[in-house]
Amino acid sequence: MRVGQRRALALLFLLLAAAAGLAAPSVVRAAGAPAAAPAPAPPEPFGATCRTSVQGSHVTMYCHNPYPDADRVRLHIDCALWWDLDADSAPVEVDPGQTIKLIDRCWKDVGTVWVTHEKAR
Known about the structure:
Elements: H1 3-32, E1 49-55, E2 58-64, E3 71-79, E4 87-88, E5 92-94, E6 99-105, E7 110-119
Antiparallel strand pairs: 1-2, 2-6, 3-4, 3-5, 3-7
């Protein structure tokens, strides 16, 4: 082998060794990196869709449950006058695909109305 060929061959081995040295640490870094935590599963949809209407001192609530889990709903009425008793209904279970109707009232004027939801056991 000639001197020029030896130098070219030595240079080729040197370049290959340098390329292997640069590539190896990136592979090691990629292998040593911690795996990303799996994304949490989205919560299952829950809760009946409720609508309320107020006519004078009477409150009517309709709730429909489109989801596979039962929902326990309660109607709460805050009467406007201080001497008028507020109303809180007993929990009513709304099964999947079921629509319920609750009615309650104040003696005089209705202040605020709201509905609470709870998962049925």
